[in-house]
């Protein structure tokens, strides 16, 4: 089955900007055989809900919704993706190309919450499990070491990852909308699109965290570098077109903040959950090494 | 009377021909459906001994266990859902996972409440996810299926504890790894056999992946269980 994304011929930046300017021309998945489900009902209702989905999707760029937030259909409109689309979005987050804005090219006015939520959940468990594994591997030679599952790390990882994935997009979106209203800029992204970008950009950390369990210090830092470059460039490519019309200082400050926060998450996770051979077993607090690296990162050339 | 009737004649033309004194054949049954004496069923479940009631529920739970152990596409698990089985399995699993050792208070394995929360909260989230993606299965049926399919993992936990009583070295670990991996595959396969049909075809993988993650996390908790000395 050809996904709607296969039907494009050439991708020009003007085309994607036109798409942004007119959200009504959104390309939606036609497989809208979503069953209108009422809870407790087992019948399959094949009534096409396409009108409802189309309305609520094209208004997601704006402020109004067609169904109220207390109905089930409102939330169903955020899960209107197929397997192929999710895989394509993941691929786009792992291989960022300078011309392809993630929001315009992959999300195409159909932001979903499936990807961000399950990528965050997978990341939480992969970080906790790999951290446990790396502690075990780095202490294998020690005869007094007893293996501990360290289950409390799952809770901490969950809080950190989910806070990052929801509060930072909220801040970025709020800032962009405020600048848009103050300066009459081009349209900023909707909140869901921002959450979507951040969620999918975290995907690269999942294989990175699994590879971090190999207890070689230089390998871990190399992996952090690669992951941050890829993930950061997804975010930079996405947010630069919106921010570049602003004053130079604001633009650079915004991009720097986005990159720095992303780096803090990666380094904080690594310092807290993973130990290399030279460190002690006790888990260090995530703030102190993060502030130490903060100063080191600010001096990075932009 | 004739003048009054003349005015009404065009409207009720045919009616005046019918004389009520004649016999008008009336056919049909007038039967009020009465639940005649089917109240015997309700009275009997109140009157039967408690042992019968409990045994009936236990038999239903046991029958569903058999369905999980030999998963083929049957709708028995979906039709007569109940949550006793999942509760039993979850409590057993949480009790067995609880005895893990810890140097400090929070360095050990999952506590009872954590296992409970992960199993039930995870099942609820997976059910919501499948419904939001357009699945046709109802909320409690999905909870029932996910809960019952924890049975292979509970059996694996029992086996792991027995193995840990014997040997704690690498050999024991290999055995535990094999047993837990096999039961993880079994659980995932069993639950997808029941759940897969209720999803739209182009989103099946999106629904199966969270189930995979759920059983993977439970398998990891079982595998990393280390008993107190």
UniProtKB/TrEMBL annotation, chain A:
GO CC terms of this entry: Golgi membrane
Any one GO MF annotation of this record: small GTPase binding
Ranges where the Yip1 domain occurs: 94-266
UniProt-annotated stretches for the region Disordered: 28-60
Keyword Oxidoreductase found: no
InterPro entries given in the database record: Yip1_dom, Yip5/YIPF1/YIPF2
Location relative to the cell: Golgi apparatus membrane; Golgi apparatus, cis-Golgi network membrane
Skewed-composition ranges (Low complexity): 28-39
Keywords from the UniProt entry: Membrane, Transmembrane, Transmembrane helix
TM annotation in the entry: 113-134, 154-176, 188-206, 218-240, 252-274
Membrane topology: Multi-pass membrane protein
Pfam families in the record: Yip1 (PF04893)
GO biological process, any: vesicle-mediated transport
Similarity comment: family membership: Belongs to the YIP1 family.
Protein name: Protein YIPF
Natural source organism: Pygocentrus nattereri
Gene: YIPF2
TrEMBL record, chain B:
GO cellular component, one term: Golgi membrane
Gene: YIPF6
Pfam families: Yip1 (PF04893)
Transmembrane segments: 81-100, 112-133, 145-167, 173-195, 207-226
Family in the record: Belongs to the YIP1 family.
Biological process annotations from GO: endoplasmic reticulum to Golgi vesicle-mediated transport
Name used for this protein in its record: Protein YIPF
Primary location class: Golgi
Membrane topology: Multi-pass membrane protein
Residues annotated as domain Yip1: 69-221
InterPro entries, alphabetized: Yip1/4-like, Yip1_dom
Keywords: Membrane, Transmembrane, Transmembrane helix
Compartment(s): Golgi apparatus membrane; Membrane
Top-level taxon of the source organism: Eukaryota
Organism ancestry: Eukaryota, Metazoa, Chordata, Craniata, Vertebrata
């Amino acid at each position: 089955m050809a996904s709607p994304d296969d039907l494009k011929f050439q991708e020009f930046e003007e085309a994607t900007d036109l798409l942004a300017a007119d959200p009504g021309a959104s390309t939606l998945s036609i497989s809208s055989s979503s069953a209108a489900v009422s809870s407790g009902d087992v019948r399959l209702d094949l009534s096409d809900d396409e009108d409802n989905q189309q309305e609520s999707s094209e208004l997601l760029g704006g402020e109004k919704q067609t169904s109220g937030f207390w109905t089930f259909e409102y939330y169903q409109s955020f899960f209107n993706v197929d397997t192929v689309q999710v895989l394509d979005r993941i691929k786009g987050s792992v291989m960022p190309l300078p011309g392809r804005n993630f929001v315009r090219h992959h999300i195409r006015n159909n932001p979903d919450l499936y990807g961000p939520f399950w990528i965050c959940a997978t990341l939480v468990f992969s970080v906790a499990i790999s951290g446990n594994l790396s502690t075990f591997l780095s202490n294998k030679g020690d005869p007094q070491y007893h293996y501990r599952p360290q289950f409390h790390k799952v809770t901490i990882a969950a809080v950190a990852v989910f806070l990052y994935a929801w509060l930072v997009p909220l801040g970025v979106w709020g800032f962009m909308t405020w600048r848009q209203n103050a300066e009459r800029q081009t349209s900023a992204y909707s909140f869901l699109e921002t959450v979507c970008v951040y969620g999918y950009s975290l995907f690269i950390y999942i294989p990175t965290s699994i590879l971090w369990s190999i207890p070689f210090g230089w390998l871990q830092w190399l992996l952090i570098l690669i992951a941050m470059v890829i993930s950061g460039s997804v975010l930079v490519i996405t947010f630069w077109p919106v921010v570049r019309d602003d004053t130079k200082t604001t633009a650079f400050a915004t991009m720097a903040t986005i990159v720095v926060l992303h780096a803090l998450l990666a380094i904080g996770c690594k310092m807290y959950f993973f130990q290399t051979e030279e460190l002690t077993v006790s888990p260090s607090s995530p703030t102190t090494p993060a502030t130490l690296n903060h100063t080191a990162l600010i001096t990075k050339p932009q | 009377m004739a003048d009054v009737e003349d005015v009404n004649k065009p409207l009720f033309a045919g009616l005046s021909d019918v004389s009520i004194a004649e016999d008008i054949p009336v056919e049909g049954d007038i039967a009020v459906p009465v639940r005649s004496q089917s109240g015997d069923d309700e009275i009997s479940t109140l009157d039967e001994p408690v042992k019968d009631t409990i045994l009936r529920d236990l038999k239903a739970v046991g029958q569903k266990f058999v369905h999980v152990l030999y998963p083929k596409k049957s709708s028995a698990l979906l039709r007569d859902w109940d949550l006793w089985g999942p509760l039993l399995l979850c409590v057993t699993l949480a009790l067995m996972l609880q005895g893990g050792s810890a140097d400090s208070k929070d360095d050990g394995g999952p506590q009872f409440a954590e296992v409970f929360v992960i199993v039930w909260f995870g099942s609820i989230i997976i059910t919501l996810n499948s419904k939001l993606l357009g699945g046709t299965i109802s909320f409690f049926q999905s909870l029932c299926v996910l809960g019952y399919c924890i049975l292979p993992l509970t059996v694996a936990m029992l086996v792991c504890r027995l193995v840990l009583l014997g040997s704690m070295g690498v050999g024991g670990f290999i055995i535990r790894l094999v047993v837990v991996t096999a039961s993880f595959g079994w659980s995932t396969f069993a639950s997808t056999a029941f759940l897969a049909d209720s999803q739209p075809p182009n989103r099946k993988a999106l629904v199966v992946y969270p189930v995979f993650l759920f059983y993977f996390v439970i398998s990891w908790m079982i595998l990393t269980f280390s008993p107190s000395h």
